[in-house]
UniProtKB/TrEMBL annotation, chains A, B:
GO terms for MF: DNA-binding transcription factor activity; transcription cis-regulatory region binding; zinc ion binding
Classification of source organism: Bacteria, Bacillati, Bacillota, Clostridia, Eubacteriales
Cofactor annotation comment: Binds 1 zinc ion per subunit.
Pfam families noted in UniProt: FUR
CDD domains documented for this protein: Fur_like
Alphabetic keyword roster: DNA-binding, Metal-binding, Repressor, Transcription, Transcription regulation, Zinc
UniProt cofactor(s): Zn(2+)
Protein name according to UniProt: Transcriptional regulator, Fur family
Alphabetized PANTHER family for the sequence: FERRIC UPTAKE REGULATION PROTEIN, ZINC UPTAKE REGULATION PROTEIN
Source organism, top-level taxon: Bacteria
Sequence similarity: Belongs to the Fur family.
Amino acid sequence: MKYSKQRELILKTVRENRVHPTADYVYHFLKKDHPNLSLGTVYRNLNLLSENGDIRKICIPNARDRFDGRMDRHYHMVCQECAEVFDIELNCLSKLEEEISSRTDFTVHGYDVIITGVCHTCQHKLNESKKEVS
Amino acid sequence: MKYSKQRELILKTVRENRVHPTADYVYHFLKKDHPNLSLGTVYRNLNLLSENGDIRKICIPNARDRFDGRMDRHYHMVCQECAEVFDIELNCLSKLEEEISSRTDFTVHGYDVIITGVCHTCQHKLNESKKEVS
DNA sequence: ATAGGTGCAAAGTCTTTGCGCTTAA
DNA sequence: TTAAGCGCAAAGACTTTGCACCTAT
């Protein structure tokens, strides 16, 4: 693959901005200092990079796709209130691939775990507003 | 919630068609016998039903959302070749919620595991075409 | 009677793509 | 030199929504 400044910047942005950015986030983040950047280029490169295994695409119900620069084994928690995505390490999944291959004839390339719920901050806010009502 | 014939049909379709149908599938499936049905109604009801916990919405990278009428604990394998979705039961996830609550302050509502790879049929086809080349 | 649901079509949102120009190799 | 990549804008895919009509309660 031919080098491009844009791709380098996009990869850097996903790696360094640990918010699991959307394509739009990456675009606006870079647009400030690189006014010629186009959204199409961002999409093209995010897809390229995730196909190449340089970044991960995270698919979340009722939300747009996000990208993750961390390629080590970890999983994701999504807050239903604020829509933020948090990382988590889980021990009990270490045997997952093993179990799948022994129980099915499916060739496993990868897997993702998406935990949905409410983050600490939002839970706190919800508790506060409950108090106000009662 | 007020009863509607359309909603009943849509729920029945998702429950009985174990292909993890997309909204479009449900629409065309029912349209045959119910020509007045509109796609908007299908979307509205699929979203309603999944919010109510009657069905599950499955979000798959690079594919449209699918719906699942099985509400018991199980997970999903997606074939990257044919895009079909298969169910799988996994034992090692039984302690997952426990581990998350003990390790984080995240309130877990649910989680989904999406395993990507290649199904048996497609793997076979891939092997065949390799043979042809060599 | 009336709140909620439907059908329809239009509008939205997010993403991809065609094309002429640019640039890394 | 030239194939890959870019910027732009238009098109595409999928989903939501406003509104007038309909229907379960």
